[in-house]
Amino acid sequence: MGRRNGKKHAAFAADSSAEYPSDGKSVDGNLKARRSSKNQHGTAYTPFIRNPIDPETVKYFTEIANVIESKEIDLEERSIICGNALEETRGKEAELATDYVISHTLQILLEGCSLDYLCGFLQSCAEKFSYIATDRSGSHVAETALKSLSVHLQESEELSFIKDTLLKLCEAIIINPVDVMCNCYGSHVLRSLLCLLNGMPLERSHGTKSATILAERMNFKVPGSDENMSYPSRGFPDLLEYLVSEMLNATRENISNLTMDQHCSLVLQMVLKSLVGNIPELLNTIQVILGCNIDMEGNLTESTRLEEIPQYVEEPSYSRLIEVIIQVAPDTLYNELLQRVFKTSLLQMSSQHCGNFVVQALASHTKCSEHIDLIWEELGTKFKDLLEMGRSGVVASLIAATQKLHHRETECCQALASAVCEGDESLKCIVPRILFVDNFFSSEDRLNWSWPTGSRIHVVGSLILQSIFRFPSECIQTFASSITSLEKDQLLVVSKDPSGSRVVEAFLNSNVSAKLKRKLVIKLQGHFGELSVHHVGAFMIEKCFNTSNLSLRETIVSEMLPLRAELSRTKQGPYLLGKFDIDGYARQPDVWKTRQASKQSAKQEFYAEFGATDATKLKKDSFLADTRHKPQPEKMKEVRKQIQTSLTSSRTSATPFLAHQGSKAKTKSAKKESSVDLKGKNKKQRTEKGKDGINSSTPREGSEHMVQSEFSGNNEKKGEGKDKNGKKRRNAEDSKPSKKKKKVDA
Q1: DSSP label at 717?
Q2: pLDDT of residue 686
Q3: Rounded Cα distance, 326 and 297, in Å
């Protein structure tokens, strides 16, 4: 147990199967030769006969496990022990890896050893790697080895050493790849190997979570998601092409059956994702899977298999494979699939349990308005039928597609409203019925349907409404009126539901008028404190606060004030306490109200000077109870005119912006005095605005990003101080240019 050897792979060197390339030849140069000589489809497949493990070996690895699990050894000593223990596996790798108990110890050894011992182990067991990968216990050992190799790949510079090891594993797999692909354990290992060769995180090998797929289809941003599926990690694209090519050659003759196999389908899905960016190999793989020819531009050739594809999508494994093909297909191929394969079959596929997911994928990956039109012709008037069949996902995907491409938005909203509200029924029922879409359409008496007590809000129904509230305001007035018509107790239930609260947030973020938003917020009065300590409602409270006027904001803070201690113990509580300045309100309520008013007043003045459109919107959404600080229209027009004149002059001369103030008849001394004075003023303004987070450069007209940066956090209160006489600095500064002008003209 205590044997240590300073030489690399001392124990592995005696095994000819573990000899490392020493002739300096590139692995790439041998790939073509290996393809013709190594992988013969007629190669005899020898079943693996597992030999028993002798008691001494079992005892040895039991002691090793006890030593490694102790906390007395440091990392360096642990690495040496792991390496020495791996040497004892020589010639018995397959037997030990497939042992239920010892396999766990091997996993620990492979995670803790150095790169040399790790590669030595893999090369030594390469000939039996397929047997290990397809075993219940061995597959975990194989995946652990690949994961450990992935970590070393990002840290080590010995790429050729790692590449040689991976080549041996690929050669072992392609002897009989179908058995590995169709095995429930081998499928996992093979997908991990594909990820490793492509440089993708190995976590991707286990597939994408349904929540992530749903979020992508509904155009919601997912933290950490990568839309183009490109990864900057190290990979071996030549080995990837080699392995994929040999796998396809072995599966080509029986591909129609293999695509129906669950585990083989998962491997093929990973192959497609791994080849994104490599158009020739990607198109070649797709044409093998579909059983038809595709030219280099992505155009499909005539084939009887094309007509059979809509029929096959009812199979779960095949439908998932088609979804990935749609996801990774170049634009030309996507257009071909939609126009020539799935056209006229969309409604039929939507009615199928698995086929409807293919329709969702088609809608989610539309590239242009023509694609929307084609899908809309078949499904646009069938929203009610789809919802009755329980295919709300198809409706949600189509709504998200129209919102993404800004095409047929009005028609989409009208179709959805008509699907859930017929004839002379009150429009108030639209939002409740969508929130509980499955419950409503499965009801036997829809006319007398009422709010279901105790039922959870439907996830897809929530996503539909979230998408709807991202549409232009003129399209969603019906939905806005419906959600503001909810009863107080109904709105409280929605606000505490994980899916429902997101609908309320989406409405408060929408483009509808502030009056409608505040109408909704007022209904929550008396429950703001309760929602602030709720794990779901806490996120919505911030949206309510941002939308509210001054009196409503004070109401929100006053209801949260008694719960300060409880808020501080929640996840979102400390953030809300700081964001709303609840401690400041507790100390001096009047000062708190003045700060809130000052923040909005400063925003108004900024928009008024640098963005007429935004000023109008802000005036409309203003929460101030009085109008004492509204900017004077005539004065604002004069300021805008001066800015526009200065900008026009600066484009035609080399003189800096704001250097054109005053008359052209100024004397040199007057110009110099005016320039110095203006520069001093601008410097002062930049200093004051810099305290608020504004960039020192001149802000662009209508810059939303600038405004958001300026008024973030509690820094707004610094930007608009008062002098000793109680007058605002802003007013004093506005009067300076006119005085200077009189002085110069004199």
Answers
A1: G
A2: 43
A3: 16
pLDDT value of residue 644: 66
pLDDT value of residue 375: 97
Reading phi first (left if > 0) and then psi (alpha if -120 to 50, else beta), residue 13 is in alpha
Tell the residue number behind the tokens 């090519």, with chain if given. 245
Q: How many whole angstroms separate alpha carbon 342 and alpha carbon 55?
A: 62
Give per-residue pLDDT as tens, 25-34.
Answer: 334 444 444 4
Separation of alpha carbons 587 and 574, rounded Å: 18
* Counts for the chain of helices (H) and strands (E), in that order: 44, 0
| H helix intervals, 368-429 | 369-379, 383-388, 392-405, 409-420
- Return the structure tokens found at 673: 């005095």
- Find residue 722's DSSP bridge partners: 728
Nearest one of 314, 312, 367 to 338, comparing CA atoms: 367
Question: What is the model's pTM?
Answer: 0.73
**pLDDT for the residue numbered 21:** 35
Retrieve residue 442's tokens.
């499965």
CA distance 10 to 31: 29
Residue 132 and residue 109 in contact, taking contact as beta carbons nearer than 8 Å: no
Rounded (5°) CA angle 697-703-709: 70
What is the distance between the alpha carbons of residues 112 and 79, in angstroms, rounded to a whole number? Answer: 5
> What are the structure tokens assigned to 148, written together?
């450990």
Instruction: Please report the pLDDT score of residue 635 as a whole number.
Output: 56
- DSSP per-residue codes, 420-455: HS-TT--GGGHHHHHHTHHHHHT-S-GGG--PPTTP
Q: Which residues contact 284 (CB under 8 A, 6 or more apart)?
A: 248, 294
Domains and their CATH numbers in the chain: 51-207 (1.25.10.10)
Please, which residues bridge with residue 353 across strands? Answer: none
**pLDDT 10s digits, 87-117:** 999 989 999 999 999 999 999 999 999 999 9
**Got the DSSP string for 636-648?**
HHHHHHHHHHHHH
The span from the CA of 233 to the CA of 201, in Å, is: 8
* pLDDT for res 745: 43
Amino acid sitting at position 578: G
If you search the block for the tokens 């429930």, which residue do you land on?
Answer: 184
* Rg from Cα positions in the chain: 34
At 70 the three-state DSSP class reads coil
Helix or strand or coil: residue 294? strand
Half-sphere exposure of residue 337, counting CA atoms within 13 Å on the CB side?
Answer: 30
Residues in the chain: 746
Query: Can you tell me whether residue 300 is helix, strand or coil?
Result: strand
Torsion over CA of 436, 441, 445 and 451, rounded to 10 degrees? 0
As given in the structure block, the two tokens for residue 343 are: 């056209």
CA 140 to each of CA 131, 186, 220, 364: distance values in angstroms, whole numbers, following the listed order: 12, 10, 35, 36
**CA–CA distance, 546 with 580 (Å, rounded to integer):** 10
Gap between the Cα atoms of 443 and 461, Å rounded: 16
Residue found by looking up tokens 């200065």 in the block: 646
Task: State in Å, rounded, how far the first CA of the chain is from the last one.
Answer: 101
What are the φ and ψ backbone dihedral angles of 289, each rounded to 5 degrees? Answer: -65, -45
Give the span between the Cα atoms of 45 and 589, in whole angstroms: 82
Helix or strand or coil: residue 49?
coil
- Annotate 549-565 with DSSP letters as a single string: -HHHHHHHHHHHGGGHH
Q: How far apart are CA 614 and CA 629, in angstroms?
A: 17
Kindly give the parts of the chain with pLDDT less than 70: 1-48, 204-211, 219-233, 611-746
115: its two tokens? 């790169």
**545, 553 contact by CB (below 8 A):** yes
How far is it, in rounded angstroms, from Cα 259 to Cα 264? 7
